Amino acid sequence: QVQLVESGGGLVQAGGSLRLSCSASGRTSSSYKMGWFRQAPGKEREFVAGIRWSGRITLYADSVKGRFTISGDNAMNTVYLQMNSLKPEDTGVYYCAASSRYSALAYPNTFDYWGQGTQVTVSS
Questions:
Q1: Residue 56 backbone dihedrals phi, psi, to 5 degrees
Q2: In angstroms, rounded to a whole number, what is the distance separating the alpha carbons of residues 33 and 102?
Q3: Does position 27 have pLDDT exceeding 80, yes or no?
Q4: C-alpha span between 86 and 114 (Å, rounded)
Q5: Which one of 13, 17, 75, 79 has the largest count of C-beta atoms within 10 Å of its C-beta?
Q6: By the 8 A CB rule, do 80 and 21 touch?
Q7: Which has the closest alpha carbon to 29: 48, 71, 1, 57?
Q8: CB atoms closer than 10 angstroms to residue 67
Q9: Quick count: other Cβ atoms within 10 Å of Cβ 3?
Q10: 17 vs 77, more confident
Q11: Cβ-proximal residues to 42 (8 Å cutoff; 6+ apart), any chain
C-alpha cells in the first residue's frame, strides 16, 4: 500500500504561481509512476501531468504544456507540480496518484493509489 498526501493548494490571481507537493509513504519502492489529475465542479477528472521514475519520463496535458512542470525528489517519495501563468480554467481539486503498473500515464484507471486532493482556485 502507498499513502499519498497533497499540499500547496490555495487561492491565487490569474497569472500567478503555485507549487503543489505530494508525499508518498508505505511501499514507495514499488512505485513506477506518479501523476497529477484535476477535477473541476461538474466535470470529469482529467490528466494534468505524469512522471515515470525510470528515466524521469514526463508527460503533460496540452492545456498545461509550457506552464506546468512535474518533478520528483531523488528518493522518488515526493512529486511536485510547479504551476505558472495560472488561468481561471485551472481551478479545481488537484489529486496526486501513484501506481506500480507499467502502463500509460494519462489515464486515471491506470493508477492504483490516490491522495485526498488539494483545492486550487484561480481568480480572474
A1: 50, 45
A2: 8
A3: no
A4: 24
A5: 79
A6: yes
A7: 1
A8: 15
A9: 13
A10: 17
A11: none
DSSP 38-88: EE-TTS--EEEEEEETGGGEEEE-TTTTTTEEEEE-TTSSEEEEEE-S--G
Amino acid present at 58: T
Q: Under DSSP, is residue 110 helix (H, G, I), strand (E, B) or coil?
A: helix
Helix or strand (DSSP H, E) at 36: strand 33-39
pLDDT of residue 92: 98
Cα–Cα distance, 60 to 48 (Å, whole number) = 6
Other beta carbons less than 10 A from residue 20's beta carbon: 22
**Per-residue confidence band for 80, with pLDDT thresholds at 50, 70 and 90:** very high
- How far is it, in rounded angstroms, from Cα 3 to Cα 97? 10
Distances (CA, A) of 38 to 28, 48, 56, 115: 22, 7, 21, 12
Using the structure block, give the residue that is written with the C-alpha cell 488561468.
87
